[in-house]
Amino acid sequence: MISVVILGAGNVATHLYKALSKTQETEVKQWYNRSIDAINSFKNEVYITDDLSQLKQADIYILAVSDDAVKPLTKQLPFENRLVVHTSGSVNIHDMDKKNHRGVFYPLQSFSKSATLNFTDVPICIEAIRSEDYHLLKKMAIAIGSPTKKVNSEQRKVLHLAAVFVNNFTNQLYRVAHEITESEGAEFDLLKPLILETAKKVQKLSPYVAQTGPAKRNDKKTLNKHAKLLTNKHHKDIYDLLTKSIQHTHGRKKL
Amino acid sequence: MISVVILGAGNVATHLYKALSKTQETEVKQWYNRSIDAINSFKNEVYITDDLSQLKQADIYILAVSDDAVKPLTKQLPFENRLVVHTSGSVNIHDMDKKNHRGVFYPLQSFSKSATLNFTDVPICIEAIRSEDYHLLKKMAIAIGSPTKKVNSEQRKVLHLAAVFVNNFTNQLYRVAHEITESEGAEFDLLKPLILETAKKVQKLSPYVAQTGPAKRNDKKTLNKHAKLLTNKHHKDIYDLLTKSIQHTHGRKKL
């Protein structure tokens, strides 16, 4: 049984709490947050505290706090030589105070407050200074059903950046499509199956192989038709840049 | 029983042939293509021809051909007063020769040669000059299990443009993420569950509500970290433009 203390009360902390308290292989011994109010509703199922000096002994301390809070929080911990991990995509493992054994447990997924999340869909990027810690963290990930991958701080930074492209930027393209359709009285909803199919396609094919459309074909007639339809300059900028990008990737044009 | 003749041999034609020949409510009476070779492998299951003068009588003629071929093909048809539809997102219904009754049967989805496609995931945008034709086309769509929507030529053009954003451009963002990760020895595969989750999220939430990340939060520290990581100028241009776009949408910045 792996004993865990969770620090923080955001989406990642809450989803980890729920997953870790469900399995037989892990036990959440305590939940800490700076402000007790955020976790008060869990007080009947787990020890809660807002006092760092009251932290219980555990195998792993998970700091699921904002990027900026990681470093100062590791300094404030009133113990040494225990395993302390953070869950951030962009904080270097060496930014943590070295009085404790350090590790990273970065779930590469988008966490919403409400949606229930299946950790089988959440790859965990694991990093640790000591190999025994790496194996313990891997065991914890497997206990909640997650696939795992050994990822160093440099690779993790790059994954975090790439995640912005496939998540935030992709979502913004959906938003632009929403603006374009609604402005002409067409229904955004009609695009939803295509959105899903596009994401499914690259589960098996590389994005290079999966590409289609007028930019790739260099179909100037359609590109011109679209240019005329785009009345919003900002939408047109995005159209032009991504068309150029596709043509570059597929050997149609130099940048 | 609705009788159909299919003209063309691309992905849309082939998928429609398979779907229409499977249901009880529709019958593919004949399959035409300019070059017989492309459909020769189907000759034991359906009448095939490369001769327009040999076209059989049917309730609906589906022109699943390239955009440029639609207009000339409608002119070449050796009959009148029958229902002729095209399947293109961007060809106006009035571009078709008016000697026949005209309609549009536009499947809003990405068609690959290999992948089997379930038409329940393919919304059909229907347009027709005559209301009885509209109802017949709707009946045909329902027969293959598709949701349908009445969409006029202007709305269809806009949907076709929006589809480029959610399909081709989104796929290009996946490609950029692939380039970013692989260049640093990180695994693109780790992003696949996030790609799927991002697409699933907007099936229920609007893209506006679904947005998260450093651009929306105006988290300058992370934005700066990413700027430093982006060594490829072209990737940086996309990062900057889409960050600006998100900040504009969420009231952080004027364009």
> Considering the protein shown, what is the CATH homologous superfamily of the largest domain in chain A?
NAD(P)-binding Rossmann-like Domain
Q: Helix coverage percent of residues of chain A?
A: 40-55%
CATH architecture of the largest domain in chain A: 3-Layer(aba) Sandwich
Mean pLDDT metric of chain A: 95
Main beta sheet of chain A:
8 strands, mixed
Question: What oligomeric state do these chains adopt?
Answer: homodimer
| CATH class call of the largest domain in chain A | Alpha Beta
Radius of gyration of chain A: 23 Å
How many strands appear in the DSSP assignment of chain A? 8
Strand content of chain A: 5-15%
Characterise the protein shown here:
The structure is a homodimer of 255-residue chains. The mean pLDDT of chain A is 95. Chain A has helices at 11-22, 67-76, 131-143, 153-183, 192-204, 207-210, 214-217, 220-229, 233-249, and strands at 2-7, 26-32, 48-49, 60-63, 83-86, 101-107, 124-128, 148-150. In chain A, helix 3 links the parallel strand 7 (124-128) and strand 8. Chain A has 2 domains: 2-151, NAD(P)-binding Rossmann-like Domain (Rossmann fold, 3-Layer(aba) Sandwich), CATH 3.40.50; 156-249, Orthogonal Bundle (N-(1-d-carboxylethyl)-l-norvaline Dehydrogenase, domain 2). By secondary structure, chain A is an alpha/beta fold. Helices cover 45% and strands 15% of the residues of chain A. In chain A, strands 3-2-1-4-5-6-7-8 form an 8-stranded mixed β-sheet, with helices on both faces.
